[in-house]
Amino acid sequence: MTVISTTSTTTLLVGVFRDALGLPEAEADSDFFECGGDSLSAFQITARLQEALGVEVPVALVFAYPTPGELAEVVETDFLQG
User: What's the rounded Cα separation, in Å, for the pair 77 and 35?
Assistant: First the structure.
Protein backbone atom coordinates (compact mmCIF):
# COMPACT_ATOMS: atom_id res chain seq x y z
CA MET A 1 0.00 0.00 0.00
CA THR A 2 1.30 3.45 -0.93
CA VAL A 3 0.93 6.11 1.73
CA ILE A 4 1.45 9.68 0.60
CA SER A 5 0.51 12.80 2.50
CA THR A 6 -2.27 14.99 1.14
CA THR A 7 0.33 17.74 0.64
CA SER A 8 2.42 15.43 -1.55
CA THR A 9 -0.66 14.28 -3.44
CA THR A 10 -1.71 17.90 -3.97
CA THR A 11 1.76 18.80 -5.23
CA LEU A 12 1.67 15.83 -7.60
CA LEU A 13 -1.79 16.81 -8.85
CA VAL A 14 -0.80 20.44 -9.40
CA GLY A 15 2.03 19.21 -11.62
CA VAL A 16 -0.28 16.84 -13.46
CA PHE A 17 -2.87 19.60 -14.02
CA ARG A 18 -0.13 21.95 -15.27
CA ASP A 19 1.07 19.36 -17.79
CA ALA A 20 -2.37 18.15 -18.92
CA LEU A 21 -3.82 21.64 -19.27
CA GLY A 22 -0.65 23.33 -20.52
CA LEU A 23 -0.86 25.92 -17.73
CA PRO A 24 2.38 26.34 -15.78
CA GLU A 25 0.61 28.81 -13.48
CA ALA A 26 -2.03 26.31 -12.26
CA GLU A 27 -2.23 26.05 -8.46
CA ALA A 28 -3.99 23.82 -5.91
CA ASP A 29 -7.20 25.87 -6.19
CA SER A 30 -7.21 26.18 -10.00
CA ASP A 31 -10.51 24.97 -11.44
CA PHE A 32 -10.26 22.29 -14.14
CA PHE A 33 -13.14 23.78 -16.12
CA GLU A 34 -12.02 27.41 -15.83
CA CYS A 35 -8.57 26.34 -17.03
CA GLY A 36 -10.06 24.87 -20.21
CA GLY A 37 -10.19 21.24 -19.12
CA ASP A 38 -12.00 18.74 -21.31
CA SER A 39 -12.54 15.00 -21.42
CA LEU A 40 -9.17 14.35 -23.08
CA SER A 41 -7.27 16.28 -20.41
CA ALA A 42 -9.30 14.51 -17.70
CA PHE A 43 -8.17 11.15 -19.10
CA GLN A 44 -4.58 12.41 -19.19
CA ILE A 45 -4.84 13.40 -15.53
CA THR A 46 -6.17 10.00 -14.43
CA ALA A 47 -3.59 8.15 -16.54
CA ARG A 48 -0.79 10.14 -14.91
CA LEU A 49 -2.22 9.41 -11.46
CA GLN A 50 -2.32 5.71 -12.22
CA GLU A 51 1.28 5.85 -13.42
CA ALA A 52 2.51 7.85 -10.41
CA LEU A 53 0.46 6.26 -7.62
CA GLY A 54 -0.49 2.84 -8.96
CA VAL A 55 -4.21 3.41 -8.43
CA GLU A 56 -7.01 3.71 -10.95
CA VAL A 57 -8.89 6.95 -10.38
CA PRO A 58 -12.21 7.22 -12.26
CA VAL A 59 -12.31 10.10 -14.75
CA ALA A 60 -15.63 11.20 -13.23
CA LEU A 61 -13.75 12.28 -10.10
CA VAL A 62 -11.85 14.92 -12.09
CA PHE A 63 -15.19 16.43 -13.03
CA ALA A 64 -16.67 16.05 -9.54
CA TYR A 65 -13.60 17.48 -7.75
CA PRO A 66 -12.24 19.98 -10.27
CA THR A 67 -9.29 21.44 -8.38
CA PRO A 68 -6.02 19.64 -7.61
CA GLY A 69 -6.58 20.28 -3.90
CA GLU A 70 -10.08 18.79 -3.85
CA LEU A 71 -9.08 15.83 -6.00
CA ALA A 72 -6.02 15.18 -3.83
CA GLU A 73 -8.20 14.86 -0.72
CA VAL A 74 -10.45 12.31 -2.41
CA VAL A 75 -7.54 10.34 -3.87
CA GLU A 76 -5.79 10.32 -0.52
CA THR A 77 -8.89 9.27 1.42
CA ASP A 78 -10.46 6.81 -1.02
CA PHE A 79 -7.48 5.29 -2.82
CA LEU A 80 -4.31 5.64 -0.79
CA GLN A 81 -5.45 5.04 2.78
CA GLY A 82 -6.49 1.42 2.84
Answer: 25
